[in-house]
Automatic annotation (TrEMBL):
Pfam families: ALAD. This is Delta-aminolevulinic acid dehydratase. GO terms for molecular function: porphobilinogen synthase activity; zinc ion binding. Transmembrane segments: none annotated. Keywords: Heme biosynthesis, Lyase, Magnesium, Metal-binding, Porphyrin biosynthesis. SUPFAM superfamilies: Aldolase. NCBIfam families: PRK09283.1 (NF006762). It catalyses: 2 5-aminolevulinate = porphobilinogen + 2 H2O + H(+). The active site is at K206, K261. The keyword Magnesium applies. Gene3D superfamilies: Aldolase class I (3.20.20.70).
Length: 337
C-alpha cells in the first residue's frame, strides 16, 4: 500500500505534457484553427480617384478611393477572404443634421458597392448602416431639441439607408447604430423592396467603448462628436445579460448573423452568445485593439505576427464564426506562407 502511494507520487498517471512533447501530437489535439475564411476585412473609402491617406492612429491602415479599393479587393479575394466591410469617409460638406447623404443612391458607399460588385461579383460586400459618418454632430442618429438620439425618426433613415445599399448590390447590411427595432424595420423594408436575399449582420451587442477612438479619426467623426458619448444607445461595458437580450431581439426581428463589439475584451460575451443561441456569431477586433497591438509591435515590445495570430485564434476559441479585423489581409498572407 505504502509503496504504491510512493510510486504514484513519483509517476503521475496523467501527464498532459506527453501530448505537448512533439509537434505531431500538438497538431492532432489542436481544437481550433484559423483560415482566411474566418476574416472580414473592414476598409475606409475616400472620394476621388488615385487617393490614399494613412490613418495616423492606425499605422498600416489607409483610406482608399474607390479605384484603389477595387485593386485592394482583388488581392483580398485572391487571399480567400470572403467579405469586406465598407466604411465611407464622408466629406464635411455632405454632412447634415438629417443625415440625408446616408441614403443618397449615388453616395460614396453606394458607388463603392456598385464598383466592387461589378469587378468582383463573388466577394461579399457588407455595408455599415448607421448615421454617424453623415451627421454634423457625429451621433449615430437624429437628435431632438435636448440632444437625445430619437429612436423612431432615426430608424426611418436607417431603413432608407439599408434599402439604398441593397439596391446598389450590397450582399449584407450591418446596422451598427443600436436603435431599438431597427432590425425588424430594415428586414421588412428589404422584403417589401424585393431584396429578399440581402443578409442582415446585426451589431447586436455593441458596447459604448473607448476602443473606437482610432475609427472615429479614420472616418472623421471624432471632431464632430467632440466631447459627446453614445451612452444612451450603445451598451454599458459592465453588462452581460443585456447582450443576450439584445441578440434575442435582433434574431426575432430577422437578423441572419449577430455581432459582438469590441472583440478581445468581450470574448466572454462571444462565448455566451454562441452557447445561448448557436447562430452565426461574429466579433469585431476594433480600431483601438488594432492600435494597441500595432503600437506595441512597432516599439519592439511585442512580436507582431505572433500576437496578432494568437489574438485572432482566441476569437475562434471563444466561439466566433468570424472576425472583423484590420489585420485580415496581413493574417491571410501569413496563413498562405
Ligand atoms: C459607427 C461605427 C463605429 C465602429 C464601427 N461602426 C464607431 C462608433 O460606434 O462610434 C467602430 C469600429 C472600430 O473601432 O474599429 N456606427
Amino acid at each position: 500500500m505504502q509503496s504504491k502511494t510512493a510510486l504514484s507520487a513519483r509517476f503521475p498517471a496523467a501527464r498532459p505534457r506527453r501530448m505537448r512533447r512533439d509537434e505531431f501530437s500538438r497538431r492532432l489535439m489542436r481544437e481550433n484553427g484559423l483560415t482566411p475564411a474566418d476574416f472580414i476585412y473592414p476598409v475606409f473609402v475616400l472620394e476621388g480617384s488615385g487617393e490614399r491617406e494613412a490613418v495616423t492612429s492606425m499605422p498600416g491602415v489607409e483610406r482608399l478611393s474607390i479605384d484603389l479599393l477595387v485593386k485592394e479587393a482583388r488581392e483580398v479575394a485572391a487571399l480567400g477572404i470572403p467579405a469586406m466591410a465598407l466604411f465611407p469617409v464622408t466629406p464635411q460638406s455632405a454632412k447634415s443634421l438629417d443625415a440625408r447623404e446616408a441614403f443618397n443612391p449615388d453616395g460614396l458607399a453606394q458607388r463603392a458597392v456598385r464598383a466592387l460588385k461589378d469587378a468582383l461579383p463573388d466577394l461579399g460586400v457588407i455595408t455599415d448602416v448607421a448615421l454617424d459618418p453623415f451627421t454634423t454632430h457625429g451621433q449615430d442618429g437624429l437628435l431632438d431639441e435636448t440632444g437625445y438620439v430619437m429612436n423612431e425618426a432615426t430608424v426611418e433613415v436607417l431603413v432608407k439607408q439599408a434599402v439604398s445599399h441593397a439596391a446598389a448590390g450590397a450582399d449584407v447590411v450591418a446596422p451598427s447604430d443600436m436603435m431599438d427595432g431597427r432590425i425588424g424595420a430594415v428586414r421588412s423594408a428589404l422584403e417589401s423592396a424585393g431584396h429578399i436575399h440581402t443578409r442582415i449582420l446585426a451589431y447586436s451587442a455593441k458596447y459604448a467603448s473607448s476602443f473606437y477612438g482610432p475609427f472615429r479619426d479614420a472616418v472623421g467623426s471624432a471632431a464632430n462628436l467632440g466631447g459627446g458619448n453614445k451612452y444612451t444607445y450603445q451598451m454599458d461595458p459592465a453588462n452581460s445579460d443585456e447582450a443576450l437580450r439584445e441578440v434575442e431581439l435582433d434574431l426575432n426581428e430577422g437578423a441572419d448573423m449577430v455581432m459582438v463589439k469590441p472583440g478581445m475584451p468581450y470574448l466572454d460575451i462571444v462565448r455566451r452568445v454562441k452557447e445561448s443561441f448557436g447562430v452565426p456569431t461574429f466579433a469585431y477586433q476594433v480600431s483601438g485593439e488594432y492600435a494597441m497591438l500595432k503600437a506595441a509591435s512597432m516599439n519592439g515590445w511585442l512580436d507582431e505576427r505572433a500576437v496578432v495570430m494568437e489574438s485572432l485564434l482566441c476569437f475562434k476559441r471563444a466561439g466566433a464564426d468570424g472576425i472583423l479585423t484590420y489585420f485580415a489581409k496581413t493574417a491571410a498572407e501569413w496563413l498562405a506562407e
